[in-house]
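User: Here's a structure from my thesis project, written as structure tokens. My advisor, Dr. K., wants to see whether a designed sequence matches the one we expressed. Can you design one independently, without my sequence as a hint?
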């Protein structure tokens, strides 16, 4: 006698799929070291090579300095977001300052936890002796949806001051996906830039990790960004003809 196998119902398939996804997320959660948002941010802020290069090699190229500041901020934001969400460890108490020092550059990053809800607010400073100072505030908003992906807003406002008086202001409107669902954090959104030398710029961080943008001066485009998250964001300045500003 032959046995007729019943066709699984749609509900059964969805239930099995949910269990499979839950198992993957659970495995990732168990295997990932839990790090607080403040600790992760402080560690990311200590990679100051773009700012040291801007101070050392770009004194006569303010647009390149602005690009280097943008590179620093986007890279720090990306690395600080990795693992954010259900993989984040216990947050520091409100009013607690976490300080970390780079063993070679002696850069010091301090992150103050100002609030937990409705936004997780981190106020930070970075001091690179004789080179630069960074001050900023970063917010992690509540979980929402971008299409079908669970996503957190992570807006940020930062000022970078080099020792010779150059300053850059950066404002980001970025979002990060929940890494335990997507397998890896995805950062996307817009970063606007301006500096003390009349340069302004805009970076578009795409959901596929690509980065594009421009820097302008007096309404003229003077260079373009091209790169990817997790690597150097290349800035290609345009040749400025003699006599132009």
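Assistant: Designed independently from the structure alone:
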């Amino acid at each position: 006698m032959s046995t007729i196998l019943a066709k699984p119902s749609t509900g059964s398939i969805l239930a099995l799929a949910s269990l499979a996804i839950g198992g993957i997320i659970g495995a990732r959660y168990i295997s990932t070291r839990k790090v607080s948002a403040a600790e992760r941010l402080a560690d990311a802020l200590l990679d100051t090579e773009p700012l040291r290069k801007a101070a050392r090699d770009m004194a006569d190229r303010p647009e390149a300095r602005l690009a280097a500041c943008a590179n620093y901020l986007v890279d720090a934001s990306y690395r600080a977001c990795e693992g954010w969400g259900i993989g984040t460890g216990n947050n520091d108490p409100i009013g607690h300052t976490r300080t970390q020092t780079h063993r070679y550059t002696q850069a010091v990053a301090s992150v103050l936890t100002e609030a937990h809800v409705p936004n997780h607010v981190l106020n930070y400073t970075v001091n690179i002796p004789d080179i630069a100072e960074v001050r900023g505030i970063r917010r992690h908003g509540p979980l929402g949806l971008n299409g079908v992906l669970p996503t957190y807003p992570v807006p940020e406002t930062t000022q970078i001051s080099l020792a010779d008086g150059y300053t850059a202001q950066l404002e980001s409107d970025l979002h990060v996906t929940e890494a335990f669902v997507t397998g890896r954090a995805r950062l996307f959104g817009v970063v606007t830039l301006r500096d003390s030398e009349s340069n302004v710029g805009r970076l578009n961080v795409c959901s596929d990790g690509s980065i594009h943008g421009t820097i302008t001066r007096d309404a003229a485009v003077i260079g373009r960004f091209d790169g990817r998250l997790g690597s150097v964001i290349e800035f290609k300045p345009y040749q400025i003809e003699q006599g132009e500003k």
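When you compare it with your expressed construct, this may help: The radius of gyration is 22 Å.
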